[in-house]
Amino acid sequence: MTEMKSVLTGAAGEKAKLPADLRLRALSALALAPVALGAVWLGGIAYLLLLALSVLLMAYEWARVTCGPDWGLDAALIAVTGLGALLTVHLLLTPGSDGQGGSLLWAGMVILSGMALGGGLAWLRDKPAGWRLAGIPYISLGPCAMVWIRAQPDIGFLLILWLLLLVWAMDIGAYFAGRAIGG
After folding, report:
1. For position 16, what pLDDT does the model report?
2. Distance (Å, whole) CA 180 – CA 1
3. Which of 53, 58, 80, 87 has the highest count of CB atoms within 10 angstroms of its CB?
4. From the CB of residue 63, how many other CB atoms can be counted at a distance below 10 Å?
5. How many Å separate Cα 152 from the centre of its chain?
């Protein structure tokens, strides 16, 4: 607890010096938060592009961490499936369409198709499919839900804003709690 207090207030009356990782986190938050908030506020294609970029980054990271040295094909499959599901939800929620309920169902069909293809590819390559397949719904469902939530009239923007603020607060709290308990 004293380490957290010294990070926040400075030790023995000294000017508080932020740890290097906290400084980097704060700078990246100052740069990225306005971009994220702007995309959420604008909605439409700006919001969709932000979510598409997040799907690509998550697919890369997931495949690199879980799929071993030959992760490229898995990353591509996860990314294409996630982007396909995201685009499906977006297109079915455009004004004038009647996709409110069915958009997530169709996105689920895209995700299941990607998982079936992934299972077949894992079998052909004689690789375990578990983590490879788990990444597809894990990465695809969140952004799809965020498109669906943002599309809700009158309240979608506020719900996404609340979600972002909640996640950011939890992340900041977890950082300081981890620093306080030493891990």
Report:
1. 55
2. 5
3. 58
4. 24
5. 20
Residues 36, 164: Cα–Cα separation, whole Å: 9
pTM above 0.85, yes or no: no
Could you report the average pLDDT of every consecutive run of 10 residues in the chain (183 residues)? 50 57 82 92 94 96 88 92 94 63 82 90 78 91 93 91 93 87 79
Nearest to 78 by CA among 64, 96, 60, 91: 60
pLDDT for position 69: 83
Which structure tokens are listed for 28?
Answer: 């990246």
Residue given tokens 């719904």 in the structure block: 137
**CA atoms of 146 and 20, how far apart (whole Å):** 32
DSSP codes joined into one string, 55-80: HHHHHHHHHHHHS-S--HHHHHHHHH
